[in-house]
Write a structure and sequence with these properties.
The complex is a heterodimer of chains A (304) and B (335). Chain A is mainly alpha-helical and 304 residues long. Chain A contains eleven helices and two strands, in the order H-H-H-H-H-H-H-E-E-H-H-H-H. The chains are: A mainly alpha (304), B alpha/beta (335).
């Protein structure tokens, strides 16, 4: 835009009662950038990411100590939770990525997401900054979308932190090379890395439902702590209910029910059924709780 | 509802031909009609408010704590949905036209709110980024200018949690000054400031007003309003008690005639003869409610009666007198 244009538009806007300054649609993204910067500069966010990065380190060291004498880790087939990646780690460090994701997905990752999502709106409300964002004016829909996008970005960042940390620790402590899929076929290391990336993306996508739920809870209250606690509490409740056999009619609708289906990406050929169900369920949660959050947030009186 | 006619938004009666350049709504920056807010639980916070803020005024919005000032401001800023009634800001309906109106309004609402883990400068950058009409290319300069304007240029890099209350207040003001604004809404802007800071804020308000910005200033401090405001409205218990020009409001509670004289007894007699009521003699000071007639005549009568007059003044009524006259109670009574 030339300088003359700018002047013409500002002059046109100044006396008019309906005219605004001449905003470019791209300026709207400034809020997203600011939101990302603000979120990732928070000490709490960094602490959460550090804890997540520590999980693969602990698992890796534990496995290394257990298998230090050259034996492979306890014969175990498909132990209680999830796939039997852990027994493969000593053969191939890449399996630490899958193990770490399987270990953090049931609790650590969604808890971290629940904290960030629960705090998204409620934290601003309790700090009072929400009113200043809204009179800026951020716009309620725009602010909510920005918050959701940021929480999704955090899901991705958190998952990648686990994956990258596991990849590094795995490569450091264990041999790497071709790997054997769950189905018993052999794939190259490069393809294994590709699968690992794909799995990380699917794990990140698995958190979209919790993120939407947390954001909705966040619009209900003016206390960041309450919203975080509620979201994490819901997560634990659902995880427990998912273990009760009598509730098997309901369980396919729990957001966590198909989480560990990401292991199916390590089959040859890939078994897509549960993966698709998982992604569909996450989309459903995002739609339902996203709409609920929007309905609540756009009509709410901001008194904090 | 002292003077609804002079500044009201009802245009038809006001010689529309003479001002073709001005558009409708220009002369009332804020206009509410029957604005009411009842909170869940039934508490009536604001009750049928008809408020008119003329353009270019420094408008004092007075009332004890809990009188509904902040609820009104929140409704004007689109943060709270009114239960009934309407509010227009810069001629447009709120909260419907928030996106158009709010970029031209700077606000400090119920004290500053900051991100403690960000520096003062980063706080302002964030608030500026929240405004979709703010040009990112000039953002840093505008933030620096705003910091400079409130005297925080040196402390801009410090984390906001290390700020004193007065510094936070200044930073909140800086956020309201990130853009040229047509209206500034300042809710208790001098809270937490030392006397020097208060003076600076008053100077700043006067400066902004002389640039043509309308300033809407809420306060529970009468002398603050009296010092900077051209217009004022008084609220108590959710209702608007009065509004109008400060001079008119003060005139409503009439001043006292004060005569200083060694002949106090004679002076009191003459003043009574001249129609002054409520004559009080206190040594060499005689005070009275001034009579309707020209005060020059009163003075002449005193002199004619050989009263030796040292001083003859009309003490202007303060806004506080006006408030007491209107409500019949002290100002600090919470609603």
């Amino acid at each position: 835009m030339s300088r003359a244009d700018v002047r013409a538009e500002t002059e046109g806007a100044a006396p008019g009662r309906g005219g605004t300054r001449s905003p470019s649609p791209l300026w709207s993204l400034g809020l997203l950038r600011s939101e990302l910067l603000t979120t990732f500069r928070r000490w709490r966010t960094l602490a959460l990411l550090a804890v997540l990065a520590a999980v693969p380190v602990l698992v890796g060291i534990a496995v290394r100590i257990e298998t230090g004498d050259g034996s492979s880790l306890g014969g175990g087939g498909g132990g209680g939770e999830g796939p039997a990646f852990i027994s493969q780690i000593s053969n191939n460090g890449l399996f630490l990525v899958f193990t770490a994701l399987a270990a953090t997905l049931p609790f650590f990752l969604p808890m971290a997401v629940g904290v960030v999502a629960g705090d998204a709106i409620a934290g601003e409300a309790s700090a009072g900054t929400l009113r200043y964002l809204l009179v800026a004016p951020a716009g309620r829909t725009r602010l909510l979308l920005t918050k959701y996008a940021t929480v999704i970005a955090f899901c991705l960042a958190a998952t990648l932190v686990v994956a990258v940390s596991a990849l590094a620790v795995g490569a450091l402590l264990f041999p790497v090379g071709d790997l054997i899929t769950i189905s018993g076929t052999r794939i190259g290391y490069a393809e294994g890395l590709g699968r690992a990336l794909l799995i990380a993306l699917v794990v990140a996508a698995s958190l979209v439902g919790v993120a939407a739920l947390g954001l909705f809870v966040s619009t209900l209250t003016g206390s960041g702590i309450a919203a975080m606690a509620t979201t994490v509490g819901l997560l634990i409740t659902v995880q427990i209910l998912d273990q009760i056999p009598q509730l098997d009619a309901l369980q396919p609708y729990f957001f966590s029910h198909y989480w560990l289906s990401f292991a199916d990406l390590m089959r040859e050929p890939v078994y897509w059924d549960d993966l698709v169900k998982n992604l569909g369920l996450q989309a459903l949660y995002a739609a339902v709780f996203g709409s609920a959050a929007w309905a609540r947030f756009t009509t709410r009186d901001i008194t904090a | 509802m002292a003077e609804p006619s002079a500044t009201g938004p009802e245009r038809p009666g006001r010689a529309p031909e003479r001002e073709p350049a001005r558009e409708g709504g220009e002369d009332a920056v804020i206009a509410t009609r029957g604005l009411t807010k009842r909170y869940r639980g039934g508490q009536l916070a604001v009750d049928g408010l008809d408020l008119t803020v003329p353009a270019g005024s420094v408008f004092g919005f007075l009332g004890p704590n809990g009188s509904g000032k902040t609820t009104t401001i929140r409704m004007l800023m689109g943060l709270i949905e009114p239960t009934s009634g309407s509010a227009r800001v810069l001629g447009l309906p709120m909260p419907r036209a928030s996106r158009t109106v709010l970029p031209r309004v700077g606000a400090l609402i119920e004290g500053p709110a900051l991100y403690g883990f960000l520096s003062g400068r980063d706080n302002l950058l964030r608030y500026d980024a929240a405004d979709p009409t703010a040009d990112p290319r000039t953002r840093r300069e505008r933030v620096a200018a705003a910091l400079d304007r409130v005297g925080l240029a040196a402390a801009g890099g410090k984390k906001a949690k290390a700020y004193s209350l007065g510094m936070k207040q200044r930073l909140g003001l800086a956020a309201a000054l990130l853009q040229p604004r047509r209206l500034l809404v300042l809710d208790e802007p001098t809270n937490g400031l030392d006397p020097q800071g208060m003076r600076e804020i008053r100077t700043l308000v006067r400066e902004l007003a002389s640039d043509g910005t309308t300033v809407f200033l809420s306060s529970h401090l009468l002398d603050e309003i009296e010092q900077v405001c051209t217009h004022a409205a008084v609220m108590a218990q959710g209702r608007l008690i009065t509004q109008g020009a400060v001079a008119d409001l003060a005139a409503g509670a009439r001043g006292r005639l004060v005569v200083t004289t060694p002949d106090a007894g004679d002076a009191a007699r003459v003043l009574k003869e001249q129609g002054a009521a409520d004559v009080v003699v206190d040594e060499d000071r005689v005070t009275a409610e001034p009579p309707e007639r020209d005060l020059a005549e009163v003075n002449a009568a005193l002199v004619a009666a050989r009263v030796r007059v040292r001083g003859f003044t009309l003490e202007r009524a303060s806004l506080e007198d006006a408030f007491v006259a209107l409500t019949g109670e002290g100002f600090d009574v919470a609603g």
